[in-house]
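Q: My collaborator sent me two sequences in one message, no labels, and asked for predicted structures for both. Can we handle them in order? The first one she listed is below.
A: Yes, handling them in the order given. First sequence, followed by its structure tokens:
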Amino acid sequence: MPREIKAAVALSVPFDLALSAQTLDAPGFWRWVYRTRFLRSLKRKSLAKLKKFPGAADAIGSGGHARCSSRRCAHRPHPRIRQRADYYAQSSSRSFVERVRVPLLLLSAADDPFIPAQCIPRPTNGSVTLEISAEGGHLGFVEGPPWRPRFYAERRTVEFSRST
């Protein structure tokens, strides 16, 4: 790791991609809204990348994000990864948390509609600080009244960065 990195903060991390994708694909209005927006954005970005790098699709196989209706097909595996389960297992960050050697603050919310609480690791590594708020949704973390909101994640990021 570069010496310049003194600390890090990660918000609402989908530590277990298979479980998070399964949750996102489950029924529910807000999941449908998020999934639809996510895939629309992903399709737009993918088409822009294909326009910029025309041969890229040939390297990963034919097909496309245009036909995706769930998040599972949004992740195009690397050719050396044979199964979706392998891709999710190799790309999930849960197993890497214990190896972090710089101060790391992980902020998650127990009520995140896309990242189930059971996929959040409980690190024993002294470099990692885990904070799970009861509420916060997916990247919400808003405190205070609507007419004067305060943003918990931003405040904690600054506090944590200054303390390391």
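Q: And the one she listed second?
A: Here it is, processed independently of the first:
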Amino acid sequence: MIGIVLALFSAAVSALAVVLVGRHSKASNAFNVSLLISLIGLIVVWPFAAVFTDFASINIEGILLFALGGILTPGLVRLFYYSGLKKLGPSVNSSIFYIYPLYSSLLAVLFLSELLALENWIGVILIATGVVFVELGCRETNCANNNILKNWLFPIIGGLTFGVSAILRKVALSFINSPLLGIAVAYSFSFIPFILIFAFHKPTRANLSIKKDLHLFWLAGIGQVIAWLFSFYALSLETVSIVAPLLSIEPLFVAIFAFVYIRDQEPLSLKLAASIAVTILGVFLVTT
């Protein structure tokens, strides 16, 4: 039960951070936002990990899995996610991204021998159906002009990458049951994609503006690392096939927070609300 509550808290806090980014996304680019949020998370989490981790109990297998998971998430995933957010807006981008319970549930069955009942599979399918309905709701919002396939690829690929990394984190936690250390290692290795892009892409170097963007996104960075902490502890207590769909309820919170904070940029349409309701029903069935 505690793991379920932590997963829901993670979804809510992450959604708020996403909306905070959405308020200022036009003032920067996906690379700068992703790098800055990862950097803030790294600075916040390592002191706590250093104090509260029993380093005598760590092993190389767990560290390597945390590191690989970190390259995928938040490394690559954050770049895909915030690129999609800039193109599609917070609500639509989050809803497409959160099809990942399909991937993570299938992978958990295949590689972790987790079992799902019929109603759980129906719930996963409903989550995916809710994502499809977002496309219809999108036509009633200002994201309609951005609704083209290449923009949808950002959250779709990001969701697939996130699903794979969820499996890696679960296995890593079986080697080292230290969520704080796991987050710290994951955040550290998440910089590898950023370093490669920065080194080989001249326009990215020219547009780097961390100091200018700090006051816009620092709070979102703190929110994201708190959300990660909740999700890691949730994974340490529950199965992937339970935690992943619960985290996918984030679009509900994104829509609520977006309506409160950026309703002028992204109004909540009836169809979009209906798609979120279908997703919530799916999450309920997954957790029964």
